[in-house]
Design brief:
11 helices; nucleic acid binding; ENDOD1; DNA/RNA_non-sp_Endonuclease_sf; 2 domains; alpha+beta; Endonuclease domain-containing 1 protein-like; Extracellular Endonuclease, Chain A; signal
């Protein structure tokens, strides 16, 4: 029995004795696109394959002992984690960072006993106390499930982030990214992998806590995404974004991975090139516009590649910005509750079909403003009044009522297809501001459309 017990102990130890601090990421390369780590970062930083005791690996981190923060964490997103909302705030330390010869190759609790043992080469929770900085995750716990969520709560996966930046600005980026990637992964039926790298730009002039100046505060936080489809490269894409680690105006910008590489090299002040993903991961697929539409809608991220935005959108954005800054109207007290664009159709059948789709998928209501037969130079005043009245009546009716009336209008127009039909496509955004907004009405015209802003 004694021999069997000894053999069991040896086998268990062999199963768990996988390196935590490693010379290369070979043991956890599944979290890296093409198995290749980002290049051009601090070559003296420690490589960590993150794991729990008697568990497998969950992600990879590059940790700077000099700055006491990670330079990046590389991870993937499993769409099955979308329903896992469990969270633990039990933080951990990595023994092998402070004691390279330690046989303990897994995370240990960040308690008072372990803090005294391992505080030499890494940050501990007390370094963050009363500083105004959060222990901000690089690999977000919300991107993992079950034990993987626990594994994200290590100080080697956290950096000092201004509380408002972490809990508002960056959190919105994480939530938007998670929703976007889960939707794509589900639509592709598991035939793709989302490789993600989130990192820091250490600012050597800012350290916490005030009395010890131990942990470097990053000036910027960044994320790069490589979405690799397993069988159809036309569905693969990559993008990145970066923001300033500050309370207000973090200037979070969406960009290509190539541009992010260049920006990081500028921030790091190095002549060595930086490459987050091998060959920038399908950056030539030019899918940034697709990503920009999702991110700008949800978190209002600006895009630095202006050539990927249509000239009409640029004109509209510039006009709105100039109008808001031309007087004393506080920008934060402005709400946009109506966005109007003009379209024309050559038949009522076409109009009715598109009107149904717009309402079903985007909750946009199209109002007929006028119709006229082709070849005629005027529209009778009474007819036009009647048509505008019909449009207003449709707006006030329920969609089922509007649908029925549009059908009747479409059928009545079947015998006369040669019509020009102009409509206003209106989308109303409901909002309940905490304070009353200033009363104003503006109409901003561009070459491509009209935007109406009303309170």
């Amino acid at each position: 029995m004694l021999v069997l017990g000894l053999i069991s102990c040896i086998v268990l130890r062999a199963l768990s004795a996988q390196a935590k601090v490693v010379h290369s990421f070979e043991e956890c390369k599944e979290f890296l696109y093409q198995g290749k780590e980002p290049s051009g970062m601090d070559q003296n930083a420690e490589k960590i394959c993150q794991k729990l005791q008697n568990r497998g690996f969950y992600y990879a981190s590059l940790y700077s002992v000099r700055h006491k923060i990670p330079l990046y964490s590389a991870y993937t997103l499993d769409p099955k984690c979308s329903s896992d909302n469990r969270r633990t705030d039990d933080w951990h330390l990595e023994p092998q960072i402070s004691q390279p010869g330690s046989p303990i190759d897994y995370m240990v609790p960040d308690n008072s006993d372990n803090q005294n043992l391992y505080k030499g080469n890494q940050a501990i929770s007390s370094d963050y106390s009363h500083t105004g900085y959060d222990r901000g995750h690089l690999n977000p716990n919300s991107f993992q499930c079950s034990d993987g969520r626990t594994a994200t709560f290590t100080l080697t996966n956290a950096a000092p982030m201004i509380r408002r930046f972490n809990q508002r600005h960056w959190k919105r980026c994480e939530s938007t990214l998670r929703s976007y990637l889960i939707q794509k992964l589900v639509m592709d039926g598991g035939s793709a992998t989302a490789f993600i790298v989130t990192g820091t730009v250490p600012d050597p002039n800012v350290r916490i806590p005030e009395d010890r100046k131990k942990v470097t505060v990053p000036s910027h936080i960044w994320t790069a995404v490589c979405y690799k489809h397993h069988t159809d490269d036309s569905k693969s894409l990559s993008f990145g974004y970066i923001g300033r680690n500050q309370q207000e105006e973090p200037d979070i910008r969406l960009m290509s991975v190539s541009d992010l590489n260049d920006e990081l090299r500028s921030h790091f002040g190095t002549q060595q090139s930086i490459e987050i993903f091998a060959d920038d991961c399908f950056s030539d697929n030019n899918k940034l516009v697709e990503v920009q539409g999702v991110f700008q809608k949800l978190i209002n991220l600006p895009v630095i590649q202006a050539d990927q935005i249509s000239s009409g959108l640029q004109d509209t954005y510039g006009a709105v910005k100039r109008t808001f800054s031309s007087d004393s109207t506080p920008e934060k007290r402005v709400k946009v509750n109506e966005n109007t664009g003009k379209m024309s159709f050559n038949s009522m059948i076409t109009y009715y079909s598109l009107a149904e789709k717009l309402n079903a998928f985007a909750r946009i209501v199209c109002l007929i403003t006028y119709t006229k037969p082709l070849g005629r130079k005027f529209v009778h005043d009474e007819l036009r009044k009647r048509e505008i009245s019909t449009g207003q009546m449709l707006l006030n009716a329920s969609w089922s009522q509007r649908s029925r009336r549009l059908q009747l209008m479409a059928h009545s127009a079947q015998a006369s297809q040669n019509l020009i039909i102009a409509v206003n496509a209106t989308q109303v955004v409901k909002s309940s501001p905490a304070a009353p907004l200033p009363a104003f009405t503006r109409t901003i015209s561009t070459a491509t459309g009209v935007t109406q802003t009303r309170s």
